[in-house]
Design goal:
The chain is of the alpha+beta class and 90 residues long. It has two domains: 42 residues, no CATH class; 46 residues.
Amino acid sequence: MGPSEDFRITGSTGELVIEHGRDGCLKLFDGAHPAGQVIMEAFPGKVDSYGFELHDFSLAVLEGKPLQASPEYSLGELRTALAMYRSRPQ
């Protein structure tokens, strides 16, 4: 079992663990990687990436341009997050 950190997704063959939030990394813990394998690390400018989303939204509001991520695409992201939330232990 991986270390207890910020966020954890537990599956039938392993776990994904997010360590240290935006400044941390995503690790996979499974039979092949009992000590954890880094899947994704924080990168310079990651926190600043929200500026792109805000800019995209402002262009939609001010100039009527379509969003880069359509509402249909975003709904899929929301459904995934909601399923994760509902699957947490009570």
